[in-house]
Amino acid sequence: MAKLTTKEVAGRLGITPTRVQQLILDGKLSAEKFGRDWMIEEEALANVQVYGRPGRPPKSASPVTNGRAAKSAKKARAKKSKRGQ
Prior knowledge:
Blueprint: E1 3-5, H1 6-13, H2 17-25, E2 32-34, E3 37-41, H3 68-84
Antiparallel strand pairs: 1-3, 2-3
Helix pairs in contact: 1-2
């Protein structure tokens, strides 16, 4: 039963130590507080799921707002068709 710090857990899960602390506070990751530090049981890592890669999703994955993406695509097609003529 090895205990890990938030920094060690972050390295294993590929997330930041701040995100590890947030998972603890949200109740998604069980941990014990020792002084000012959180200690996480190694077995608890099997129970936590981290979705995707860290950070904000790319713009292409975001929903279209006010039709701006559609207008940009239409302009790009128009430029491409002008070049082909």
